[in-house]
Amino acid sequence: MEAAVVHFRQGRHHVHPKQVILKVADSPEEAAKVIGKTVVWTSPAGKEIKGKVSALHGRTGSVRVIFSEAGLPGQALGQKVKIE
Fold it and tell me: Which distant-in-sequence residues (6+ apart) come within 8 Å of 35 by Cβ?
């Protein structure tokens, strides 16, 4: 399954590059099925960064993903990621 990186999770003063919002589906019921699964983003150089889907984000079919080892770079915005 694929999803699109929409945005970094952020507050008023800080951007958290290890927490990302993904657009997975059109309904929250479909998006709830991917909670707990692994997300893999592959860089243009071939390096893989893995994260885990943690929760729903709103009622539009978006989910939150937390990357443990390294955050995503800015070039990942708008790109596709694989959900395993």
Answer: 53, 54, 55, 56, 63
- pTM listed for this prediction: 0.88
Amino acid at 77: L
Domain boundaries, the chain: 2-83
pLDDT beyond 90 at 69: no
**Residue pLDDT, tens place only, 25-51:** 999 999 999 999 999 999 999 999 999
Whose structure tokens read 């443990």?
68
Q: Which CATH architecture has domain 2-83?
A: Beta Barrel (2.40)
User: What counts of helices (H) and strands (E) characterise the chain?
Assistant: 1, 6
